[in-house]
Amino acid sequence: MKRELMEILACPMCKGDLELSVEEEEDEKGEIVKGSLYCRKCEQRYPIEEGIPNLLPPELRQESE
Amino acid sequence: MVKKDGETINMKDKKIKQFVREGYARIANRDSSCCSTACCGGTDLTAGISKEIGYTEEELNAVPESANLGLGCGNPIAHASLREGEAVLDLGSGAGIDCFIAANKVGKNGKVIGVDMTPEMIAKARENAKKGNYGNVEFRLGELENLPVGNDSVDKVISNCVINLTPDKGRVFREAFRVLKPGGKLMVSDIVLLKALPDSIKNSIDAYIGCISGAIMRDRYIELMKEAGFHEVEIIDESSFPIECMANDPTATALIANLKIPLEKVNEVTSSIRSIKVQGLKPEETT
Predict the structure, then answer these.
(1) How far is B198 from chain A (nearest CA, A)?
(2) Residues B125, B94: contact at Cβ < 8 Å?
(3) Which domain holds residue A60?
(4) ipTM for the complex?
């Protein structure tokens, strides 16, 4: 995912802002390949894997893991 | 839907969701299109059906072929009047076809976000985005009832033959309303019913053809959009659901054969299934 998309993203549960942590980034395009998005309010961490943020609600997210 | 017993319904909702994800994961994993569980015909039919339901040849040629699984029931973009630079959200983006068509319309300064709850579909869509070198399209795993998108953040919300699969349609419309900027527009292609399906069909097909058994009555659909806050809700196009979509569906034919439903009954059912394009506006100032 791209950094600039942070402005549109929100926590699926409380719709609040998410904090981005980057573990791996492709330099040329600013594409975040691995990392996570954290919602302070819900204390939920949403993983970013292979460039795709998993923003399913916690219940559905566990099922897909 | 009347919720007599919250818990039972909730369990049923969860089951439907699980079924839908599994079904579409299987479809995504198939090399080429298309599906036996969802609402369309075989591989050769995909392009033909896509044209029949409103995609232009030009639009189809401009996107990666593998992005078109033939799962839609219309072309929501045809009437969405997308403009250069707009932000578009696609609910249930699948392999990405509508996102890519939208991306071509909003251009470099615009952005398109596809949300889907099936990891396999998202992976496929992302592959297609790379193939087509789309820099302005992003996909994320998310649930339509809990959109991971901020309030008032997109210009258009589009969706193609997906909301019928969701157990709580009212909530999906409320979420779409929330994320739209004031003045923004929701544009949906979907399947609705003119007449309730007979119980025998509804229950038995339930587990197989989510796209028809999940459909609700047309008037209720419109009502739910209005209840979510949408103004100027309007059906701008309506047609019968292409029969070949069902006739070529092996699961459907097998089921019909097993159930020994008389042909006239089948015709009665299919004629009450309609494909609609409907739009709604989020007013400039919400009251």
Answers:
(1) 31
(2) yes
(3) 3-64
(4) 0.89
